[in-house]
Amino acid sequence: MTNERIEEYLETILYLTNKNKGPAKTNQIAEELKLSPPSVTEMIRKLFGSGYIKYTPYHGVTLTPKGCTEAMRIKRRHQLLETFLVDVLDLDPKFAHAEACEMEHSISETTLEKMCAYMGHPEICPDGNPIGHGECCPTEALNASYRDYIPLSELKEGEQGTIKIISLTREIKDRLSSIGLIPDQEIQVKRKLGQGTLSITAMGTEVAVGKNIASKIMVQSHGA
Amino acid sequence: MTNERIEEYLETILYLTNKNKGPAKTNQIAEELKLSPPSVTEMIRKLFGSGYIKYTPYHGVTLTPKGCTEAMRIKRRHQLLETFLVDVLDLDPKFAHAEACEMEHSISETTLEKMCAYMGHPEICPDGNPIGHGECCPTEALNASYRDYIPLSELKEGEQGTIKIISLTREIKDRLSSIGLIPDQEIQVKRKLGQGTLSITAMGTEVAVGKNIASKIMVQSHGA
DNA sequence: CTATATAATTAGGAAAGCCTAAACATGTCG
DNA sequence: CGACATGTTTAGGCTTTCCTAATTATATAG
C-alpha cells in the first residue's frame, strides 16, 4: 500500500503531466508541493525504484501504468470526498477541496464506497469534472469533458441547458422536485437576479431558484 | 497545533488514566500503541516538555489541564466521527471505530461541526457512551453514565425503556416515526424474534422493529 | 560555437519517530 | 535485609523526508 507522501507526489505528477501534456518537471513538482527541488529529486528516485514513474534525469517524469492507476485511484477518492463534503455536508467548495486533500489519504475504501452509495453514485464533482473510476492514464476524451457540466448558477441569461442531477443527495433531490425540477429536464434561464439566484422556465412554467441550490444543480449548457 | 502522533499519545493516556484511575505506565502506553517502551519514554519527555503531561520517571504519566483539554477534544472528534460513520454511512460499528481512529487526525473542526449539525447534534455514541464537549478531565459522573443508553435490540423480553433518538439522522428519524416511534416515548418489549428483531408496544400499540433499526435506537432501560 | 542563465542533481546534514540491547530502578518474597 | 523479577530508561542506530549550499547539465542568445 502506498503511503501518504507517495500518494501526494503521484497525484501531483498526474495533475502536471495532464496540464503539460508532457513530462512533469522537478521544479514544477517542487513548487506544487512547496518543497525544495532536491527533495523532489530524491523522491523521484524512490518512485522510479518502485516502478511508479518513468524518469530521465534532467528531463522530467511521467507515470507508468502502475503509477497512473494508483494516481487515478487517489484522484477518485479526492473527488468523491469533495463531492460528499459539498453536497452532503454543505461545505464551501474551496474549503472542501483543501479538506479532501487532507482526508483522501486516511479514509478507507469501504467508507468511501459507503459515501458514494449514500450520494447515489455521483458521476461529476462539484467543480464540474467527471469523477474517475480508477481507469489508467486519462484519455483525451476524459479531459475534453472537463467543464462539460457547470452549475446552474453559472448559466447566462437566455441560455438553455439540460439538468444533470447526478451528484446530489436525496435531500437536495427532494428539494429540487418540490420546486418542479427533475433530471434531464430542459430549462432556459429567464433572468438572473444576482448572487446566483435566478428565474428559469422548466416545462413551460417559470420557477425561481435560490442561490444555494442553483450552485448545486449541474447542467449541460446548450448555449443561448 | 498538535500533530498526529502527539494526538495519538494523548488519547491513549486519557484512556489509560481513566481506566487505571491513576497514572498511565510506560509499558501500558507502549502496548496500547504497539510501540517499544523506549519509544514511549522518548515521546513522554517531549509531551512533558510541551506541558501536556505530568511525569515522574519510573512512576507514570497523568494529563495536565492543557493535555486533558487536548485529549478530550480528540476524543470528541473520534466519537462524532464514529457516530457519523455508523448512523449516517451505516458502517459496521467495529470498523467505524478503527476508521474513526484514522480520520480523527485529519478532519477539520469545520467539517466536524457540519457532520455534527447534519446528525442533529447527537449526544451519545453508537457504543452508548456520551459524547464529550471538550471539558477538562472527565469526572466520575461522566464515567458513571457509561452505558446508560443501550441499543433497543439489546433490551430483554418484557423489559421497559424510554427511547432516546439523540444520535440519529433525519433519514432514520423518518423511518422511525413512520413506524410510530418518537423520542422520549415509553416502550416495552413484547417478544424477541431473534437477531435483534423484536416486537414492542409503544403508546399501547404493538410495533415490529427490524434488526438494523433496532440496533440504532438508543434507549434508557427501566428494567422489567 | 561559446557564454550564460536556468534547471537539476550531488553532498552533507537535521528532525521526528521508531528500534534493539544493555543498564538501571523498584517492589516483593524469602 | 538482600536478591531477583519486572518495569523503565540510557545508548546508539536506522529510516524517512525534508533542508541549504555547491556543483553539474542543458538550452539559448549572441
Structure, described:
2 copies of one chain form a homodimer. The first copy, chain A, has helices at 4-20, 26-33, 37-49, 65-88, 93-103, 109-118, 140-144, 170-178, 211-214, and strands spanning 53-56, 60-63, 149-151, 160-164, 186-192, 198-202, 205-209, 218-223. The first copy, chain A, is an alpha+beta fold. The first copy, chain A, has 3 domains: 4-63, Arc Repressor Mutant, subunit A; 68-144, Arc Repressor Mutant, subunit A (Orthogonal Bundle); 149-223, SH3 type barrels (Roll), CATH 2.30.30. In chain A, the strands form 2 sheets. In chain A, strands 3-8-4-5-6-7 form a 6-stranded antiparallel sheet. A two-stranded antiparallel sheet of chain A has the order 1-2. The first copy, chain A, is elongated. The model of chain A is unreliable at 134-147 (pLDDT under 50). At the A-B interface, helix 5 and helix 6 of A face helix 5 and helix 6 of B. The structure holds a DNA duplex (30 and 30 nucleotides).
